[in-house]
Write a structure and sequence with these properties.
Strand content: 5-15%
Radius of gyration: 13 Å
Shape: globular
Number of strands: 3
Number of helices: 3
Mean pLDDT: 88
Distance between the termini: 20 Å
Largest sheet: 3 strands, antiparallel
Structural class: alpha+beta
Length: about 80
């Protein structure tokens, strides 16, 4: 499964990774969307969780990624339970 989210999140993520020296996967992007596997998002989230306490930007990116993951997983879960 591939998760799609706004490219702006990836741009902010790249800036944050550069600023804090994070080694994270950078999602593949088109002009409007970025795409990542759940495994890549998990690695990104693992890097952002400790940083979220000191960086509002990290906390915001983490929240957006979690919301995106949750919203895209819900339809699949709903279909499986039907």
């Amino acid at each position: 499964m591939i998760i799609a989210f706004p490219v702006e999140v990836t741009l902010r993520l790249m800036t944050l990774a550069s600023r804090y020296g994070l080694t994270i996967p950078i999602p593949l992007s088109s002009p409007l969307k970025s795409y990542a596997s759940p495994e890549e998002l998990e690695l990104i989230q693992q890097a952002l969780v400790p940083l979220a306490a000191q960086s509002e930007e990290a906390a915001a990116i983490l929240a957006e990624l979690q919301q995106t993951l949750h919203s895209q997983m819900m339809p699949e879960q709903t279909l499986q339970s039907a």
